[in-house]
Amino acid sequence: MMTEISNTDQLKAYLGQHDNTKLDLNSLQLLTGGSANFVWRLFERSGRSVIIKHAEPYVKVAPGMSFPAIRMDFEHKAMTSMPLLLDPRSMVSVPEVYQYDSDSHVLMIEDGGARTLKEAYADPALDISAFGNMLGQWLVGLHRRTTQTTIADNQTAKSMYRFAYTRLASALLKYGLDPSLAEQIDAQYGSLLQTDDECVCHGDFWPGNVLINDQGRLTIVDWEMVRRGCGATDVGQFAAEAHLLDRFRGGRGLRAAFLRGYRGTSELENKFLKRVAIHMGVHLAFWPTRVSWGTDQETKEIVELGYELMHRGIAEDESWLAESLLGELQE
């Protein structure tokens, strides 16, 4: 039976039962942020900081909501297998895994930095456009280098990723939009999340899962939603969240730089562009109704923008999409 580790004292007791003499247990700090897992930072006696992540079979902020702890197995596999496939020269990386206890679902990894890209977005000392371009290049590398890579069938990730699709109609209704579009989108594209099999997808790729260290290196964390799927969903999710940052936190060009980095010098297929538009539309139409970014009127405008992206995507309106928030993918 898995030992419960939901507070710092329980983690100290767990570490004390294992051979972790090089760790300074008095330095343990429970980190805020994140909703699913318990995460701490501590220091080795050498001075190196380490991140410890633990999964309980429920969501941290909603203990009544089941979330199988095997999600940590998928994260461990991704963190140990993806670096072997990606460009080691990149300024974007995956955390090094130091240790994993699959019985207790305790993962010890490299500390990628104290701030996420979302938190650091407004820092004038950072070149946000350069970061966006780097992340786009890294993501297209992940997608193109993993077309034949197996990652096991992460059913929990597939189910949770469809959450916004199955609840989209209520978000549209709230703002006076036709819910039949949501039903069509879920039937045609939400259902594809179960069968998509083009490449490895991070599964929760957004600025809140990108860490920045003092040397300007970026680290991609939170891999428990990893799955084989369609890369357009990773692109659509990040582009949507980047647009929200640009819209509400200072207009620093993250979305455009990210999309240009992803496109590079290659021409993307219309089918892929359509899927990006639809997923970005779903994300913008649903999540800002759950996570507030602005006033109710501003939220309404974002939902309407998401609706328009979905509508134009379904209609394959290429000329409109070329002038839209996804124009950089077609330059």
What does this entry look like structurally?
This protein has helices spanning 8-16, 71-81, 117-120, 128-145, 155-161, 163-166, 168-174, 179-190, 231-249, 254-263, 270-286, 296-314, 318-322, and strands at 23-30, 38-44, 49-54, 58-59, 62-66, 92-93, 97-101, 106-110, 115-116, 199-201, 210-212, 218-220, 227-229. The radius of gyration is 20 Å and the shape is globular. Helix content is 43%, strand content 16%. The model has no long low-confidence stretch (mean pLDDT 95). It contains 13 helices and 13 strands. With 331 residues, the chain is α+β, with helices and mostly antiparallel strands.
Number of helices in the DSSP assignment: 13
User: Structural class given helices, strands, pairing?
Assistant: alpha+beta
User: Could you tell me the strand content as a percent range?
Assistant: 15-25%
- Succession of helices and strands: HEEEEEHEEEEHHHHHHEEEEHHHHH
SS elements, strand count: 13
Main sheet: strands, sense, barrel = 5 strands, antiparallel
Strand order of the largest sheet: 1-2-3-8-7
Helix content: 40-55%
- The stretches of 5 or more residues where confidence is low (pLDDT under 50) are none
Mean pLDDT: 95
Shape descriptor:
globular
N→C terminal distance: 55 Å
- Report the radius of gyration as a whole number of Å: 20 Å
